[in-house]
Amino acid sequence: MTDSEIIESAIALVDEGMHVTFPVRGWSMLPFIIGGKESVVLQKPDNVHVGHVVLAWVDGCRYVVHRIIAIEDDKVTLMGDGNIAGKEYCLLKDLKALASHVVDRRGRQHDLYSKWRRMAVRLWWWLRPVRRYLLFIYKRVKRIR
Q: SS3 for 114?
């Protein structure tokens, strides 16, 4: 199966009301989701808000798991936590799933919207001007490659 077929299958299961544990790749959600080492639990994207992590079809060409940073009418702006400036855009109808939990390598689930995580995400947002340096240090300390 191709990556697209796997994603489409996961979306079909979510549409049927199931929760799907989905592996993520890449560094775009560091430090809150570690690609290649952690997975996210996906569910129906009912009642999404700014700050939620979603699986979305963006720019009419690819899927991403990123955080919603703005919703204006039916237009949604997304940005990965590990991104310094890059944003993606889609419509509300292109939000395919909501990530509710992160699953670590040991299989433990961690709520993506716990009080401490919400506070950490807010702080991380304000640290955008220095994210490049913090991510460099984080990757070296955690030995992420």
A: coil
